[in-house]
Amino acid sequence: SKRSGSHGWRLHDDSMTDRRTRDATVTDALLQALDTDQLRVVYQPLVVLDTHRPVAVEALLRWQHPQLGSIPPTEFIPIAENAGLIHRIGMTVLRESCAQVQRWRTEIPDLRQFHASVNVSALQLREPTFLADVEGVLAETGLPADRLVLEITESAIVDEDVAVPVLEELRAKGVKVAVDDFGTGYSSLHKLTRLPVDVLKIDRSFVAELDGTSRGAAVAEAVIRLSQVLGLRTVAEGVETAVQATELQMLGCSVAQGYLFAKPMPAEEFTAFAAASRVV
Ligand code: C2E
Ligand code: CA
Ligand code: CA
Ligand code: CA
User: Fold this and answer.
1) pLDDT tens-digit profile of 44-58?
2) Backbone phi and psi for residue 268, each to the nearest 5 degrees, phi listed first
3) Looking at CB atoms within 10 Å, which of 26, 111, 194, 245 has the fewest?
4) Nearest atom, ligand 1, residue 42 CA
5) What is the C-alpha to C-alpha distance for residues 17 and 24, in angstroms, rounded to an integer?
6) Cβ 258 under 6 angstroms from ligand 1
7) Nearest residue CA, atom 2 of ligand 1?
């Protein structure tokens, strides 16, 4: 109840309550969603800028609730983390996307270099069974370890002493590690040189600044140079315009992802996308 508009704190109080109610509703709904198959994985291609050929797909979760409608992952992933459900959800995405990518690898001759890129929450890395679970999925689906990329945010890698040994073990098996949203976290560049990673993903906020000016290119260029010096690969995310794609290419970034090439799509649609992107 908003008794008085002049009491700002009251309005704040109400919205806090609304927030909690919504979170509780979504948590309950999420428990049901897991049992009723409302969660779907969609796939966004990562393409080579030179050829537009897909080299990987990123698996992204979608949730369509019968009453609440479509709930974005930016809302339900944090709730899943708080409710202790992220490990279960994360493993479901991993299993489904590894199986799907392995199917494409065996069915589509062009996709020899193909990888599955899967988001992993910081909490998953702390799960004692995580390493064994990932190995289990690889064994079960037949996807070679070096065809799997785990996308982990910078803060998850840097903040936790737990994360580094886990990532080192995964990399020893051949699994690749990408730092997601690079540049948006708080890690020092000094720490980065010691992190067990293979790929830096340039956050789309920096890609959005690419406007043809050198000032606009400053951060993207710095990230690409840093990657090169450290022997890492760079992937640009959120590429929406041809200007951005051209500029990234000139700066030395060879792989990108974004609406310019394709939006995330259901598995059935990807086959047609892959066929259309073949160089004749
Ligand atoms: P993210 O990992 O940074 O994923 C990229 C997001 O950017 C996706 O949003 C994607 O749809 C969107 N995107 C791709 N290209 C463009 C573009 O050209 N322009 C714009 N404006 N956006 C673009 P989405 O699918 O809504 O996912 C949001 C976030 O939710 C992800 O950010 C990731 O942090 C999280 N997420 C999604 N699926 C999973 C999952 O299975 N597990 C975990 N732990 N997190 C997930
Ligand atoms: Ca990601
Ligand atoms: Ca990202
Ligand atoms: Ca992002």
Assistant:
1) 999 999 999 999 999
2) -60, -35
3) 194
4) 25
5) 11
6) yes
7) 119
Q: In whole angstroms, what is the distance from residue 185 CA to residue 21 CA?
A: 30
Instruction: Decide whether any atom of ligand 1 lies within 6 Å of the 119 Cβ.
Output: yes
What's the complex ipTM?
0.98
Tokens standing for residue 90: 């994360």
Distance 1 CA to ligand 2 centre (A): 39
Q: Whose CA is nearest to atom 3 of ligand 1?
A: 181
Q: Does the CB atom of residue 205 touch ligand 1 within 6 A?
A: no
How many Å lie between the centroid of ligand 1 and the Cα of residue 5? 37
CA distance 100 to 81: 25
Q: How far is the CA of 62 from the centre of ligand 2 (A)?
A: 14
- Cα–ligand 1 centroid distance for 204 (angstroms): 10
Biggest CA-to-CA distance, the chain: 68
User: For residues 59 and 116, is the Cβ–Cβ distance under 8 A?
Assistant: yes
Cα Rg of the chain (Å, integer): 20
Q: What is the pLDDT of residues 89-147, one digit of tens each?
A: 999 999 999 999 999 999 998 887 799 999 999 999 999 999 999 999 999 999 999 99
CA 76 vs. chain centroid, Å, equals 15
